Amino acid sequence: MTELGNAGILLLILLGGSALGMLIRPFLSERHRGRETTELIQLVMTMLVTFAALVLGLLTSSVKASFDTVDNDLRGLSVQLIQLDRSLRQYGSEADPARALLRSYTAAAIASTWTEEPRPPGDYYPKQVSPPPASGSIEAVSLGDILTRVETDIRGFEPEDPMHRRLALTCINQFELLMRARWKLVEEAHGSVSMPFYVVLAFWLVIIFASFGLSAPRNVLSYVTIVLGALSIASVIFVILDLDTPFSGVFMVSSQPLRDALAQLSR
């Protein structure tokens, strides 16, 4: 289910909780509407609202930090691509096939991950890349296969002099750094918000909005306020879930670092 769908379901649940509170209120006896009972309910709701606000604030801060980390790591991957291509270029014509594969990998990663953006021009890379279910295209198996072929080409170099031996060793070391950067991004592409935690948070919010329905005056302004409050909470949940998946959704890491790297590889 998409992040927007999850937020929409939560919005309906919160509004349903408020409606349930409004429906139950007329059936409560007078002793359940007394001042002591009302004060107790307000005290418990204040505690729950505080907990929910803290959790939402921490979640927003955490997923934003994770999103920024992925963005920085993507820039690091782009730098590794440029450095490896530079070393391959210095090695000479024997490294041209590896350079072509590296360029193909970069273009395919852009085209398959940022599907809503214009694809890199040319037909030298695979246009259709099928990612594993519920994950970013950057970890697609076919993209990994391209890098495996790059590694095979590099390890197949036959240097004829000390300079080329040093360059071959440098290329191998840089390729290993590139793979570490890629696998770090692969692991970071998965969401970190667990479903049980999300369910518990939603349960707290439903209780809070049900209490709003119990205590809200019966007028249009109260109803509109509850709806706006539920809409605000649902939008926060949408932002949290969307930021938690940095390679999909409305909030995505920028493809510009990889596009800049591709421009360098194409020279």
What does this protein look like?
This protein is mostly helical and 267 residues long. It folds into two domains: 3-65 and 191-243, no CATH class; 76-190, no CATH class. The chain has eight helices and no strands. The chain has helices at residues 3-24, 35-91, 96-113, 141-155, 162-188, 195-215, 220-243, 256-265. Helix 2 (35-91) packs antiparallel against helix 6 and helix 4 packs antiparallel against helix 5. The model has no long low-confidence stretch (mean pLDDT 87).
Give the topology, please:
Layout: H1 3-24, H2 35-91, H3 96-113, H4 141-155, H5 162-188, H6 195-215, H7 220-243, H8 256-265
Helix pairs in contact: 1-6, 1-7, 2-3, 2-5, 2-6, 2-7, 2-8, 3-4, 3-8, 4-5
Q: Can you describe this structure in just a few lines?
A:
It contains 8 helices and no strands. It is mainly α. The longest helix has 57 residues, at 35-91.
